[in-house]
Amino acid sequence: MALTLCGLFLYSAFNILRPTLGAWSHTDVHTIRGTILSTASYHRLVRPAEKITVNVSLSLLTVNDLDVKTQTLSTTGWLTVGWQDARLTWNAATYPDVSHVYTLDSEVWKPELFIDNSLDDVSILQDSNVMFKVLRDGVVEWKLPRIFTTFCNVDVTYYPFDTQNCVIEITSWAYTVDEISLRATRESVNIEDIKPHGEWTILSSSIETRELQETKENGDVEKFSQLHFYIKMKRKSNYYISSVLLPVILTSYLNIFVFLLPVDSGEKVGFILTVLLALAVLLTLVSDSIPSTSINTSILSVYLAVTLCLGVVCCLLTVLVIRINFRDPDTPVTDVWKRIHDNILVPCSCSNGCFCRCKKGKKSVNPIDPKDELVVMNYDGEKNEPNPELEPVDELKWTHVATLMDHFFLVVMVIITTISSTTFMVALSVGGAVNQS
After folding, report:
1. Would the pTM count as exceeding 0.85?
2. Buried b (16+ CB within 10 A) or exposed e, 321-350
């Protein structure tokens, strides 16, 4: 019983005396702030040492948008900046439970940093409402939330299977490399808390340390420390396959169907002009979604331009076929067109069995085989000799030439369109995969 009472007494005494034995209190924090931020020993415009190493890291929360047309990247995240200030220390033995205190931008020295590829606000990074965390060993931590709107050099060569490598450039302002050195605390950008984006997927990130060089009028060269935060992103192409690539490829094959329409239908020219208009609209839509630059040319734009040229060629060939079809039937086919018909159109149009095999010449005839000589007896019993002249056959007409030209152009355009479309898709897929790696 005596031991129990003694234990209760000691426990109560410990609880009573514990607040006076170094427990955290606002009084201690107030005292520390008054000591380390005393105007007699501290001035916020004086840097802590001759050369300071500033540790910087970037954390992203969202990728808001990558506008390919304006080449603008918008992201949301925060910068974590840290440095050592020996003037902001206190005795851990005197205040063991106070590990850190908070200060404002107007109370402590901070490095002058800015984002030199910013498109929204090119100014010193600062926020009067953000507090600085000062540890007892003089380490200052500054976490600055921000929407980063930066320029991104977009490469649309393999659009829509493109991969973009954008950068956020952090540079020291006013302080040269002999005064401030920026160092990355991570090997890559922190994307642990990033939210998924509907159009872009972050593949990887990296950080490079560089120097910005400035040459003055007197020839002196000043160097400023820089950090480049690279973000490599891949476009999610499922939407573009169904809304861009598939309509483009299908429309390119519509060119060749003009040669299947009969000339007498009167719809050949109207059909090909409608296809040309559709191709022009698609080319305009694609051009509006990619940057107006000559540094990188989109393979899709080149393919559309080639398809548009093929459409123009099909239109001209259609007009030629119509003119030949409606030539005066009484005008004989010239020898040149006969040679073209026999040596090019018939062998190359796969139509040997589709039309009568017309012979050369308007009066061309077939000789009669002597074995098949027909003997005719007159009523007197005398044998009549066969006529030695050759029998005439059907002659080549302009309508035959026009019809065969339609078949020939159909075969040629199918081959050209298939080759161009296959080359286009292979170049997009292979180039996109190589660019991603």
Report:
1. no
2. beebbeeeeeebbeeebbebbeeebbeebe
- Residues 6 or more apart whose Cβ sits within 8 Å of residue 428: 158, 161, 299, 300
Written as tens digits, the pLDDT of the chain (437 aa) is 554 545 544 445 444 444 444 577 888 888 888 888 887 788 889 999 999 999 999 999 999 999 888 889 999 999 999 999 999 999 888 888 899 999 998 899 999 999 999 998 888 999 988 999 999 999 999 999 999 999 999 888 888 888 999 999 999 998 999 999 999 999 999 999 999 998 999 999 999 999 999 888 888 899 999 999 999 999 998 888 888 888 888 888 888 888 888 888 888 888 989 988 888 888 888 777 776 766 778 888 888 889 889 989 999 999 999 988 888 887 888 888 888 888 887 887 665 544 444 444 334 334 444 444 444 454 455 555 554 444 444 578 888 888 888 888 888 999 999 999 999 989 888 887 877 77
Instruction: DSSP for 171-211, please give it.
Output: EE-S--TTTEEEEESSSS-B-TTPPP-SSEEEEEEEEEEEE
Q: Which residues pair with 76 in a beta bridge?
A: 62, 147
Instruction: Tell whether omega for the bond before 392 is within 30 degrees of 0, i.e. cis.
Output: no
CA distance 75 to 64: 5
DSSP string covering 255-324: GGGGGGS-GGGS-HHHHHHHHHHHHHHHHHHHHHTS---SSS--HHHHHHHHHHHHHHHHHHHHHHHHHH
> For 125-130, which contacts have Cβ atoms below 8 Å and span 24 or more sequence positions?
125/79, 128/104, 130/105
CA dist., res. 126 & res. 168, Å (int): 17
First to last CA, the chain: 78
Beta pairing class for 180-184 and 52-67: parallel
Distance separating alpha carbons of residues 168 and 77, to the nearest angstrom = 12
Distances (CA, A) of 116 to 121, 152, 168, 431: 9, 12, 8, 31
Residue with tokens 């040229």: 309
